Amino acid sequence: MRATLTTTYRSLLANMTQSNTRLEELRLQAATGKKVTKPSDDPSAIRPMLNARGQIRASDRFLDTMGIAGERLDVLDTHLERVESVMVRAKETLVYAGNGSLSEADLKTLGNQMQLMKDELLALANSSVDGKYLFSGFKEDTPPYSGDPVAYAGDNEAFELEIGPGEKVKVNLTGEEVFGDPGTGKDMWQLFDNMVSALDVGDAAAALAEMDDLDRAADQMRSQRSRMGNLAQRVDSAKLNMEDVRIDMEAMLSRYEDADLVETITNMTMQETAFKAALDITSRVSRLSILDYMR
Amino acid sequence: MAGLMSALNAGKTSLRTSQKAVEIAGNNIANVNTPGYSRQKAVFQPVPSLELRGFFIGQGVNINNIAREHDVFLTRQIHDKSGQLGEESSRAAPMAELERIFSVAENNLSTEIDRFFDSWKQLSANPAGQTERQIVLQRGDLLARSFDDAVTSLRSAQRNINASIESKITAINPVLQEIADLNLRISTVEISGQSANSDRDRRDMLIEQVSRELGATYYEENGKVSLQLPGGQPLVQDTSAMSLEPQLDADLNLQLVLRTGPNSTTELKSHMVGGEFRGLMSVRDEVIPERMAELDHLAFTLAKEVNEIHTDGFDLDGAGGLDFFQISVGPDPENGYAKAMAVAITDTAKVAAGKGNTGIGDNRNALNLAALADDLTVMDGNDSFTGYFSKITSKVGIEAARAQTSAQGLEDAMVQIRNMRDATVGVSLEEEMVDLMQYQKGFEASAKFLAVVDELMESLLSLKR
Fold first, then answer.
1. Whether B125 and A44 lie within 8 Å, measured CB to CB
2. What does the pLDDT look like over B91-137, one tens digit per residue?
3. Which chain A residues are closer than 8 Å to B427 by Cβ?
4. Is B312 exposed, middle or buried (0-12, 13-18, 19+ CB in 10 A)?
5. What confidence tier does B329 reach under pLDDT thresholds 50, 70, 90?
6. Which fold has domain A48-253?
7. Reported pTM
8. What are the structural domain ranges in chain B?
9. Which residue of B has its CA nearest to A21?
10. Three-class SS state of B168
């Protein structure tokens, strides 16, 4: 093929332009650290990238929610611990009342103590955190227990938090679950009322007859507490797991999105060499001409 | 003496043709950088011989034509390729704008969708919370605005395309007219047996421009070219040129109209033209409307699904949930919804977080709504909202990458073909210099020849003294 001035310069220009464009792309990659900055850079990477970002955001939310779940379970546990200690004291009082050597006046005093314990339990049952009653189910704005005889005003709904994709944990206990009838035909308040009134009239035997039911009420309360404890453990392990998922997602996003800096800079150096060569060749072209050989 | 006179004359023709040849080489050198210039070459021809006392002796030399080096095949290839190149490269600018709208950066529409559903997750952890309820409303509002922004940007991309089509129309009409004028000049010159070299060069350049912009095809007859659009409509016929005119349609989009006569016009759709016009029009009339329709579909389906669950729930006051997003009823409520999307409620108490009308702690509906984000069947039964959005974005990416690659490929091909053309018809300085030396030698020899003839005549004349 015949080479003319135009063809030579045109080819050189095309090479230099391409070389420079590629260099520019690599510089941009190195400067931003990203190999995908617009959809056309890698259309097939878009879905995994957006997906990974969404999952990272979701993980952050789940971790946040798990924090809330953990706090709620902790608060419940603290309250149930206090309920348990009252129940232990109630049982000690009942055992003491049954030793047969107490006078009617002594029993009456124990009755008064028992009444105070019931009041303490009632206060615990009606306790609220941040304006929300712990044991009312969904009726967080309603005190669960009031009236005489004490009646339950909450509901039996489970408050669940989502701590993972489709994974929900119950983080509340309703009044019925803790203070309700454990199958004895009476709830906690009826049980205490029975003991108080028996002790009030000095009927130690009648008071002592409630012992089994007191144990069953305490068992019910303890089993709920240990259920919550298990859940708290599950939340803890889910949290570790979610943190791992988040790291995996970050890695996945990075794999699709981030430029390998070493590779980019190596490529850039190579491209710079190519560009320099193109420049050098271009400057050489003009040095050789028939004009220089004519007189 | 008669023989010497004829030799003198022959020497004169030789001197003159050598000088002409030097001028032609000079003109080639002068045009070494003129785009589209085809090298010209003197065609020498001996002057017919005369019988001189029984011998036929030549009478010198003449330049009978200045020929233009030309390769019809390569010229046509350049014209064809420039139409394709025009089509692909004209997409670059609008596609870059689309890539910006459907961005892969942190803050895109898919992030807003994620954030909207995230706000429901946040609400589910504290269903009675005023702040959480407020955030849900705000996120809904921001999501609607993001859809609106995307549509507004797409419309502005269309307007930019309209502006560039309009300026192209203004530029192309004089070119068509000039081609028609050149048809007249070339046919007039060539009918008299001359070659209209530079006019042909100029016309080839103009045809290339029309090919690039409109993808025109052409044929030549009696020195006149006829240009047609890919759809067959004539652009230049004989010595008259049609003109393109802009016309606004109902959507305020600029349409192309071809004026074929004082009272007759043809509307040109994107498939009837080629080149840059087609590239621009297809982005405006096909790519962008398709993406807009997909945004409408996404926004509408999202609003519909959210409303369905929201109206299933109960608000803070225990009343049944209202529509969360405004959806107007009509024959085609989906059409234009991305722009019209808006949150329908303003009162935080009306956010339906609960599933029953039981109590303020009920978070079940908030959980249901949050779950929509991960539902892989909400979009036409086979995709999630963000999955559908990534599909739209991928389409934009694929389209943009395809246009870039194919424009680059065509650009490379164009360099090759132009080089091939210049290898045949372009000016090579080395070659011209050698020619120059050759003609110079010819000139010098003719001069010497004349001097010899002159001496001979001198000798002849001295005989008579």
1. no
2. 998 999 999 999 988 889 999 999 999 999 999 999 999 999 999 99
3. 4-6
4. middle
5. confident
6. f41 fragment of flagellin, N-terminal domain (1.20.1330)
7. 0.88
8. 1-65+427-464, 75-98+167-285, 105-154+289-399
9. B408
10. helix
